[in-house]
Recover the amino acids of this structure.
């Protein structure tokens, strides 16, 4: 069986996918995950998940539009021309959204 | 997670000592007092998202342009999504399931923010919620990125990421009305006069009168007091109101105390009887909102029956 | 039979332009009104997740309406004239779109969107061959979102029909909605020109046949029956929408839709996003 491994580097971090292991069962998968994905890089916690239990949505599959293809700018703070700098939390939200927007543009460019 | 990976049981003193940003999570064996306090706080927040969506909902249909309709629909959608995230964070505490919390909301046991007990009359009132109340909520939420219950902080990360658009769209509606006709400006002022005291009550009674505040602060669930939050809100939103030509009503009196560098609100000028009636879910209009939620939930009960226990059918149908 | 490509909006003959306009009104009004109805389910969905999904579908369909109304703007109309100041009886959407929902009738929402989305899919497929370039440019985006809508409706139908009560409710919704669903294929006054000029080369009558086969086979597989093919012509609802006749539900929806615009005494509809041609 294949198990996917998600590593949390330090407490309070999000778990991030780092790879997988082959193992006959869940117990062995947990053993292998530790030596394969945590022996150099720090790990506070590992999630070890049977691959077949993971449902995937692939954007290359026919008909997958990931929330839509037509214009969705209305969902973004960056679309509105009022000033966001008056409150730090609005500004932070705007900056995160700008970053996400750059990410989307890059993803589109690489497609 | 398997039991042997669970951390050791913590007593309240240890919780208070360790309390810090994102300090505790589902693998920590937290004392019941903490789990109950966190559940109460997050459930309140989640309920508020749902009931906030309820009062904005009519304006999806009533929005006066295609783009505004899209934006209002997206906002209501986000709020339901925030409710989903928050109920999940609360479920993690092992006290209540999402079903239970939604049932409590429908039954009138679930508590939520005072401002969402007042249905909105028309479009002029919409920015009172979308700009001022959501802005106040955003101020509070930003401080919760440092809450001690990690799943709550994770939910807050996503909420704050999305919420900026709500306030900016709210301001865009406010700006459009404020630069409209004289009648627009007058109606906007009326809406503001009506909502301003409610907005000032958003942060609750002053700290020394607030009941659950001390414990929540001591265990790091809450990271800022009511008074400091209200000051932080007034610091940026009061000038905004003025920028859009809104006159700040004389009562409730709001004064800036140079010594403490804080805005002070004359507590006696606010209607705390109404506030407490709302807090008990007994304010007539708010009750109307809760009853609506109750009817909605009941009306789709059959769907949940059908998907969760297929084949059984429902004897109580129709 | 391939038709000659039509020119740019300004170069159309009167006959061409009237046919293009009739088709665009039909497309745009269908999307706009059905989407607005879907938003009735916001805060009312059977689960939080279902609520978020139908809101997204509503926004997709509104986005399509926006694309089609925008093509009408090529002919000099403003959004205000196309929606907010237009009389209720000038709307050309099929009356399926405007039916109000009984509280909690999720089966209606699911069946309606299934009927609607299969019809839209067939219509959009037919439009892939359109002779009007401005429509051709936008088909891919519209089509890209429709797959999710159909799958969503089908998944829900399958789940509801695993349950006796669910099946009963779905059957009731099919029976109630069928006469209105058929109005999706009722012609506007320009139908012959729309087909002859190749703006939509496939006639609505043929799309109805395809729709009947597809939806009938799927629903039959779930144990839900549909009317006989021979009975369809007599079953079509009296108010088709395509000729401006509507049910009372529309007047109520229209009054609410236009309420704020009228109350604010508006003369313009605020745009928040770039023109579709500029993205």
């Amino acid at each position: 069986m294949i198990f996917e491994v998600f590593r949390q580097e330090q407490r309070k971090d999000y778990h991030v996918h780092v790879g997988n292991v082959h193992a006959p069962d869940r117990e062995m998968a947990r053993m292998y995950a530790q030596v394969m994905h945590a022996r150099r890089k720090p790990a506070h916690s590992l999630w070890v998940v049977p691959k077949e239990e993971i449902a995937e949505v692939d954007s290359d599959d026919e008909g997958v539009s990931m929330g839509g293809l037509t214009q969705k700018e209305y969902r973004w703070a960056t679309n509105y021309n009022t000033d966001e700098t008056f409150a730090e939390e609005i500004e932070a939200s705007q900056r995160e959204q700008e970053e996400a927007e750059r990410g989307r543009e890059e993803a589109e460019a690489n497609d | 997670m398997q039991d042997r990976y669970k951390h050791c049981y913590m007593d309240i003193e240890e919780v208070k000592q360790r309390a810090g940003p994102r300090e505790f999570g589902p693998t920590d064996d937290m004392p019941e007092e903490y789990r109950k306090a966190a559940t109460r706080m997050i459930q309140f927040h989640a309920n508020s998202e749902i009931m906030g969506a309820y009062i904005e909902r009519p304006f999806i249909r009533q929005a006066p342009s295609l783009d505004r309709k899209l934006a209002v629909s997206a906002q209501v959608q986000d709020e339901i999504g925030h409710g989903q995230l928050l109920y999940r964070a609360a479920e993690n505490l092992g006290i209540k399931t999402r079903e239970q919390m939604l049932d409590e909301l429908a039954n009138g046991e679930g508590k939520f923010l005072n401002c969402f007990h007042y249905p909105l009359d028309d479009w002029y009132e919409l920015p009172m919620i979308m700009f001022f109340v959501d802005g106040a909520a955003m101020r509070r939420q930003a401080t919760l990125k440092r809450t001690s219950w990690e799943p709550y902080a994770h939910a807050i990360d996503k909420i704050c990421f999305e919420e900026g658009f709500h306030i900016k769209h709210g301001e865009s509606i406010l700006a459009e009305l404020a630069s409209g006709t004289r009648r627009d400006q007058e109606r906007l002022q009326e809406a503001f006069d009506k909502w301003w005291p409610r907005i000032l009550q958003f942060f609750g009674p002053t700290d020394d009168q607030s009941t659950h505040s001390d414990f929540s602060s001591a265990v790091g669930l809450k990271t800022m007091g009511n008074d400091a939050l209200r000051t932080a809100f007034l610091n940026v939103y009061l000038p905004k109101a003025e920028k859009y030509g809104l006159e700040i009503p004389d009562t409730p009196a709001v004064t800036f105390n140079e010594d403490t560098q804080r805005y002070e609100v004359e507590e006696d000028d606010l209607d705390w009887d109404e506030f407490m009636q709302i807090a008990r879910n007994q304010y007539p209009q708010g009750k109307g909102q809760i009853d609506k939620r109750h009817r909605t939930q009941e009306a789709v009960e059959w769907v949940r029956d059908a998907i969760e226990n297929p084949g059984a059918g429902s004897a109580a149908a129709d | 039979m391939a038709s000659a490509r039509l020119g740019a909006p300004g170069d159309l003959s009167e006959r061409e332009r009237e046919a293009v306009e009739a088709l665009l009104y039909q497309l745009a009004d269908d999307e706009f009104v059905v989407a607005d109805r879907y938003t009735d389910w916001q805060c009312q969905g059977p689960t939080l997740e279902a609520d978020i999904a139908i809101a997204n579908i509503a926004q997709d369909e509104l986005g399509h309406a926006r694309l089609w109304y925008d093509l009408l703007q090529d002919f000099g109309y403003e959004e205000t004239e196309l929606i907010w100041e237009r009389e209720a009886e000038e709307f050309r959407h099929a009356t399926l779109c405007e039916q109000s929902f009984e509280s909690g009738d999720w089966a209606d929402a699911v069946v309606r969107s299934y009927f609607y989305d299969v019809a839209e899919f067939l219509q959009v497929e037919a439009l892939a061959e359109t002779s009007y370039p401005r429509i051709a440019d936008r088909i891919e985006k519209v089509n890209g979102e429709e797959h999710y809508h159909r799958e969503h409706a089908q998944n829900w139908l399958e789940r509801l029909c695993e349950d006796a009560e669910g099946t009963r409710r779905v059957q009731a919704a099919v029976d109630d909605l069928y006469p209105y669903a058929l109005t999706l294929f009722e012609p506007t006054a320009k139908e012959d020109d729309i087909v002859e000029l190749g703006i939509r080369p496939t006639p609505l009558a043929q799309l109805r046949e395809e729709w009947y086969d597809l939806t009938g086979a799927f629903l039959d597989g779930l144990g839900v029956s549909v009317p006989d093919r021979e009975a369809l012509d007599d079953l079509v609802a009296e108010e088709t929408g395509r000729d401006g006749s509507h049910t009372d539900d529309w007047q109520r929806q229209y009054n609410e839709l236009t309420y704020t615009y009228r109350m604010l005494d508006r003369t313009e509809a605020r745009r928040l996003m770039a023109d579709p041609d500029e993205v």
Observations:
- Chain B has one domain: 3-249.
